[in-house]
Amino acid sequence: MILTLTINPAVDRIITADRLVFEDRGYILDRSEAAGGRGINASQVVHAFGGKTVAVLTAGGSAGERIEKLLGTLGFTSDIVHVRAETRTNLTISDKHGLTVKLNERGAPLEASELKEIKKKVEGRLAKTQWLMICGSIQPGVPPHYYCEIIEMAKSHGVKTLLDTDGEALQHALEAKPTVIMPNQHEAERLLSRALITRGQCLEAVDVMQAMGPENVILSLGARGAIGSSPEGVFEAIPPRIEALCPIGAGDALGAAFAWSMEKKKSFSEALRWGVATGTAAAKQPGLSFPTFNDARAVYKQVELRQTR
Fold this sequence. Notes:
Blueprint: E1 2-6, E2 10-17, E3 28-36, H1 38-48, E4 53-59, H2 61-71, E5 77-82, E6 88-95, E7 100-103, H3 112-125, E8 131-135, H4 146-156, E9 160-164, H5 167-173, E10 180-181, H6 185-192, H7 199-210, E11 216-220, E12 226-230, E13 233-238, H8 250-263, H9 268-283, H10 293-300, E14 304-307
């Protein structure tokens, strides 16, 4: 099983417009609402690929009730920690040309007893778990080393971990040496306090991040694919050019397909290729929606895999 953890989920409100421009009007073409959060998105992809997944998350207030209702339509198991604070709401606006603006609330603080309950929920499912995906931001007030504790707990049960987060949560979690970290370009730039513009800078960044503790690194570069570093070597997975309708969630799809592939005992390089294919297929979907296995397989055949060393 692939277990996902999202301690700071959201109700995602998604608006599709004909165009996003300054100092002129655009027109709304569609609007929708979804249960949002990187781990929830990842579980959707694993489930769509026929894998077994459980999503552990928090929910509070009226927004939390909406998330529970929305999760009930997705077809996989969710394990919810009910919290006192109101679950956040995020807004995503994208246009037909692929331009996207995403505005996220930070989330409300969690109580110490609620953080303990989250760990208890996760630990209770580790015996049947091969991969734990720790996804998304932490709320203000949550100790920055919290993910570090989760990773160490998973390792004590022989469970591999994929960490997909940002900021202090990422910095502290590196101390626990997760199996994989998966920053996007902006997250890597914040972690390393440097700009990543050229291919050479990105390759160097992967080496620097791997030296910080994780066993493997995936640097997600959006339309440029991803660079992955593992004991097998360093690889670039380059996707075909596509017309991106909504890139939001593409990184979550990449991570989910990577974990799914690794669970299927595929090599790191093949798992990276599957991840980039699935992320690319996700970006082709309208709004915040995710591809089927057949959608991803069609793109997989077009992804170029290179070993740099």
